[in-house]
Amino acid sequence: MSTENDRAASGRVPLPPARRHSLLCGPIPLDWLVTAAQLPGRSLHAGIALWYAAGLTQSSSVSFSNTSSLLFGLDRNAKYRALGWLERAGLIAVERKLGRAPLITILTRDSKP
Q: CB count, 10 Å around CB of 24?
């Protein structure tokens, strides 16, 4: 059993109860992940964040705010660069509206025309 001193010594901070049991929902197509991993920057981080949000909402279309992207280590600029690379690779479709978080649709082989 871990004590407060053990946690302080290890440098680990316990997660809040709501996030302790959060899981990445799948299945996530391996070819999708491989393509995202080969893109520059934090494209894979953004991709995993999008799949996580899709699992929470049980929808392939998700709103991707700056706040939600921070959980995965993406600042505003890194998020927009990564979304551009994922979009050009054909992994996502982005609907942009001025002053709003972009609406992202995750594209898979089954969903592509």
A: 12
pTM of the predicted structure, to 2 decimals:
0.78
The pLDDT value given to residue 110: 76
* Whether 85 contacts 43, CB under 8 Å: yes
Written as one string, the DSSP assignment of the chain is: ---HHHHHHHT--PPPHHHHT----S---HHHHHHHHTSSTTHHHHHHHHHHHHHHHTSSEEE--HHHHHTTT--HHHHHHHHHHHHHTTSEEEE--TTSPPEEEE--TTT--
Reference 102, options 59, 57, 58, 69; nearest CA is: 69
